[in-house]
Amino acid sequence: MSDNITTKIESGILYITINRETKLNALNIATLKDIKEAVLSIYENKEVCGVILTGAGAKAFAAGADIAEFANFSIEEGKQLSSIGHFKIFNFIENYSKPVIAAVNGFALGGGLELAMACHIRVASSNAKMGLPEVSLGVIPGYGGTQRLAQLVGKGKAFEMIVTADMINAEDAYKWGLVNYVTTQEELLNKCFVITSKISSKSPVAVKTAIKVINAGYNNKQNGYEVEIEEFGKSFGTGDFKEGVAAFLEKRKAVFPGN
Ligand code: COA
Predict the structure, then answer these.
(1) β-pair type (129-131, 60-62)
(2) pTM for this prediction
(3) Which of 79, 112, 188, 199 has the fewest CB atoms within 10 Å, counting from its CB?
């Protein structure tokens, strides 16, 4: 892996930091692939319960896809960039079996905001600025932004943000439901840690299933309600369910086997 990102595992959490500070952590293809590889590396690791993703420095989470990289792309190359981004990276993160939390520590623009929106939970520091400014460049969001922004803030605000290319501040992002919490920059990673730690005390099988079922409702090839019925039923066959219920009845803390 290159130095586009840095990673560390601490207290059962994988921390990924996008490490292109001089380019405001702009997401070239290599960086996106490195993020995916890092996320994938903990798939089988039962000791690691989730991921916190942030950007290096005090200024940016990620200021977008790397404009220099796609400046001379053809129509076909543009389509491929978007398609690989969707299917190999952004959808992968959205559907990942462990929670991925975006610690939005500054600018999250274009592909940077799209990456944050593919994560399950977003926490922003008060200096953060978010937007999808692609129309200023003569393109549109291509990593799921037109869809996920509307899902998070509603169609009206999504239209406004995308067609004006305006950035919004952390407070508005919170009011509109784009981020779950706003903290100071100093508190940001700790807030993400607290959320991830809380999730780590729950059944990993149920958490994985909940992610799958919530996402099913946003997939037009699936009926989320039917997937819920199916997966709810399956829960009764898991070791985590047996342990969770036994622990409740015995008035003790559950120790989930994760199966
Ligand atoms: N792709 C490639 N490089 C980028 C980038 C991006 N998305 N965003 C910032 N950079 C680079 C700049 O080119 C500059 O590099 P340089 O020092 O080699 O010239 C460096 O990061 C710092 O950016 P700069 O513009 O000087 O910082 P600023 O504080 O004046 O402005 C922004 C910050 C975020 C407002 C501005 O960088 C910007 O508008 N970035 C592009 C945002 C965007 O359109 N994203 C969507 C892409 S599809």
Answers:
(1) unpaired
(2) 0.98
(3) 79
